[in-house]
Amino acid sequence: MKKGQKLWTREELILTMNLYWRVEFGKYHKGYPEVIKLANLIGRTPSAVALKLGNLASFDPSLQARGIKGASNASKLDKEIWNEFYKNPDVLPFESEKLRAKFEGVSLEQLNHIDIDSLPTLGKEREALVKVRVNQNLFRQAVLQSYEGKCCITGISNSELLVAGHILPWSSNEKHRLNPRNGLLVNTLHDKAYENGLITIRPDHVILVSPELKQNGQDEWSTEYFLRYDGQKIKTPRRFFPQPEFLEQHYQERFRR
Question: How many CB atoms lie within 10 A of CB 255?
Fold first, then answer.
């Protein structure tokens, strides 16, 4: 460490990891507003935050698969925080949002734009509901940024029409509910079709359409919205590649052949 530099604290690294989770890859530079904002919150320079984001990127397997190495001087604590985020996505990401709210001087509900009037007044029920909504918001942000805000099937980019869908269902796979590699960014129509097994995506990222939809092949809507994508590949994300085992499980267990 150079003279005059100070060691990064655990809190600072958790907040930086939170930013890495939320922001699109390629925006980790000193001029990006969110980088500047975090730098001001933790008393670091934007350059220092950008460099630390690069250090964290060096652990990202999706980037490694694309030949992107990230910075080379990551610390032991950097790796520890990375592993905590990605091996237990139901714990530290939420804690990082609580920490971000504390540093920004707002409530967790305000930070995540949660309508407080829709929540129970007090108690564990309120806490549990806030946690669910915060976690859902974090999951959506991670998936949305990974796919650069575009449906992986159609390329639709209107955020109001996009869903951060789960490969393995939310209801039956608690361990992977918040894992971004269990996510696909799709439009609402294809999300519903995927959820019900009318389409699937193989581990090689090829889209398959159920024979049940192909039976309606003469219908204009079937061709326009489904059959034209049969056998095509999805738009792959810049990070958080969908887990091949999850895609295979959906193909084997949910796809309606």
Answer: 17
**Strand pairing of 207-209 and 183-187?**
unpaired
pLDDT at 239 over 90: no
Q: How many CA atoms lie within 13 A of 27 on its CB side?
A: 15
Q: Which residue has the higher pLDDT, 99 or 23?
A: 99
Question: CA-to-CA distance for 91 and 83, rounded, in angstroms?
Answer: 12
Residues 187-237 have pLDDT tens digits of 999 999 999 999 999 999 999 999 988 876 567 777 888 999 999 999 999
Q: For the chain, what's the residue count?
A: 257
- Name the nearest CA neighbour of 135 among 103, 182, 190, 102: 182
How remote is the C-alpha of 156 from its chain's centroid? Answer: 18
- DSSP sequence for 52-106: HHHHHHTT-HHHHHTT----S---HHHHHHHHHHHH-TTTHHHHHHHHHHHHHTS
Pair 135, 90: CB distance under 8 Å: yes
| Angle (CA) 184 85 138, round 5° | 45
